[in-house]
């Protein structure tokens, strides 16, 4: 549930405004979970007139999901790219203030002045269309905020990763790199999105009956790959879950969805022969109201699964979701339905959207920042990221917690617990 604030000259710039799901508000009350949770914006809403703007780096829920609830407290312009803007407008269409929100669409490489901040959008690759890093410059310092990223030479959707914009930053004397730590414990290089085709094709081809694939709804490239798998194996592809439909519609509205791909209406898929069915369903993390859960419980209104049907988890196990996913898999097995998880496949059927150690090393070799500020990870990920940055010759690595104030200039430092932080529960989660 990312929410970052950069401060300079008595003004603030917010980067991302996301949510998390099925979490407690306080660690000591872990048994009481809420469907949708976000960071408490109290610190910035008390000084709303000093908030120059909000930038959304990409359209994942942990970066964009709280905007529809929190914007009335922020009331600032929103800057983002075309696809992310399309996703955001769909979210805002369910509110009564959509027409009040100023959304400024930004192209790759453009620079916008937002209060005292000069911001340039740098295109990267990730597991969703149009992810961007931000070069944030002020009179005091310059920062590269990576957002979520990876080095992917074959992303399926969008342009291949181009290191040149990052390499050119070395000449600008970047003061701080604020970067993704999700895979900082993993050696090597992340798998390219293109590489999952073969594993998915072989799994679907070998299946004698229906195949249902669980994946993250935001991964439009994965949906395109599965459409190609469906065509190659003589199956019809249908999407189960509102979030999947919304992502495809957003991609189609900005010209990112290939017009040649034909989807079968969900309500028709249950009437087809079993060996002609391929379904993509929400709920790969065991979410209780998602399509996979209802299929496991045999309560989905559009499809009933039988013995020897196959469930493919084209997704990672997000830490903290192990029990829910195990319970979901067990429900399928009790009904004689087969499952295949990513760690059980001999070939990749999922590709992470985050950089592993070798990619982080390349980033620091290119940018050569004075300070590394690891974000987006648990404490062990942040520490591993900081250690790697030091090994790459970065003079300062600052590791902190929510509520810490990082001073980038003139002297790098952290003031611990300077800002009130907390969690607030939002609306009930949308039905998937």
TrEMBL record:
<keyword id="KW-0862">Zinc</keyword>
<dbReference type="Pfam" id="PF07521">
    <property type="entry name" value="RMMBL"/>
</dbReference>
<dbReference type="InterPro" id="IPR055132">
    <property type="entry name" value="RNase_J_b_CASP"/>
</dbReference>
<keyword id="KW-0479">Metal-binding</keyword>
<dbReference type="InterPro" id="IPR036866">
    <property type="entry name" value="RibonucZ/Hydroxyglut_hydro"/>
</dbReference>
<dbReference type="InterPro" id="IPR011108">
    <property type="entry name" value="RMMBL"/>
</dbReference>
<keyword id="KW-0378">Hydrolase</keyword>
<keyword id="KW-0269">Exonuclease</keyword>
<keyword id="KW-0540">Nuclease</keyword>
<dbReference type="Pfam" id="PF22505">
    <property type="entry name" value="RNase_J_b_CASP"/>
</dbReference>
<dbReference type="GO" id="GO:0003723">
    <property type="term" value="F:RNA binding"/>
</dbReference>
<keyword id="KW-0694">RNA-binding</keyword>
<protein>
    <submittedName>
        <fullName>MBL fold metallo-hydrolase</fullName>
    </submittedName>
</protein>
<dbReference type="GO" id="GO:0046872">
    <property type="term" value="F:metal ion binding"/>
</dbReference>
<feature type="domain" description="Metallo-beta-lactamase">
    <location>
        <begin position="1"/>
        <end position="189"/>
    </location>
</feature>
<dbReference type="GO" id="GO:0004527">
    <property type="term" value="F:exonuclease activity"/>
</dbReference>
<dbReference type="InterPro" id="IPR001279">
    <property type="entry name" value="Metallo-B-lactamas"/>
</dbReference>
<dbReference type="InterPro" id="IPR042173">
    <property type="entry name" value="RNase_J_2"/>
</dbReference>
<dbReference type="Pfam" id="PF00753">
    <property type="entry name" value="Lactamase_B"/>
</dbReference>
């Amino acid at each position: 549930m990312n929410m970052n604030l950069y401060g300079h000259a008595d003004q603030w710039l917010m980067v991302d405004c996301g949510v998390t799901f099925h979490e407690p508000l306080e660690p000591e009350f872990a048994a009481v979970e809420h469907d949708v949770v976000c960071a408490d914006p109290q610190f910035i809403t008390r000084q709303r007139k000093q908030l120059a703007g909000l930038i959304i780096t990409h359209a994942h829920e942990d970066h964009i999901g709280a905007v529809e609830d929190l914007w009335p407290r922020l009331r600032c312009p929103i800057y983002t790219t075309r696809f992310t803007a399309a996703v955001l407008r769909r979210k805002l269409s369910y509110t009564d203030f959509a027409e009040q929100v100023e959304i400024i669409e930004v192209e790759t490489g453009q620079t916008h002045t937002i209060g005292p901040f000069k911001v340039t959008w740098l295109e990267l690759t990730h597991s969703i269309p149009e992810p961007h890093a931000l070069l944030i410059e002020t009179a005091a310092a310059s920062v590269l905020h990576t957002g979520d990223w990876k080095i992917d030479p074959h992303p399926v959707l969008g342009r291949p990763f181009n290191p040149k914009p990052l390499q050119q930053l070395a000449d600008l004397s970047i003061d701080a790199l604020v970067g993704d730590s999700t895979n900082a414990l993993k050696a090597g290089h992340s798998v390219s999105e293109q590489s999952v085709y073969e594993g998915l094709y072989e799994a679907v081809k070998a299946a004698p009956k229906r195949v249902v694939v669980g994946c993250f709804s935001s991964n439009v490239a994965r949906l395109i790959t599965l459409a190609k798998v469906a065509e190659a194996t003589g199956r019809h592809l249908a999407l189960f879950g509102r979030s999947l439909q919304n992502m495809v519609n957003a991609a189609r509205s900005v010209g990112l969805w290939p017009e040649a791909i034909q989807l079968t209406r969900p309500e028709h898929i249950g009437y087809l022969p079993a060996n002609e069915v391929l379904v993509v369903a929400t709920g790969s993390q065991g979410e209780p109201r998602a399509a996979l859960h209802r299929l496991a419980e045999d309560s989905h209104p559009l499809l009933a699964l039988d013995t020897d049907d196959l469930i493919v988890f084209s997704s990672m196990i997000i830490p903290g979701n192990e029990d829910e996913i195990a319970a979901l898999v067990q429900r399928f097995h009790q009904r004689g339905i087969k499952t295949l998880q990513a760690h059980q496949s001999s070939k990749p059927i999922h590709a992470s959207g985050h950089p592993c150690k070798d990619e982080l090393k390349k980033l620091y070799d290119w940018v050569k920042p004075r300070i590394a500020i690891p974000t987006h990870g648990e404490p062990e990920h942040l520490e591993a990221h900081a250690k790697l940055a030091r090994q790459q010759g970065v003079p300062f690595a600052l590791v902190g917690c929510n509520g810490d104030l990082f001073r980038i200039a003139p002297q790098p430092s952290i003031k611990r617990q300077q800002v009130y932080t907390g969690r607030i529960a939002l609306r009930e989660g949308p039905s998937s």
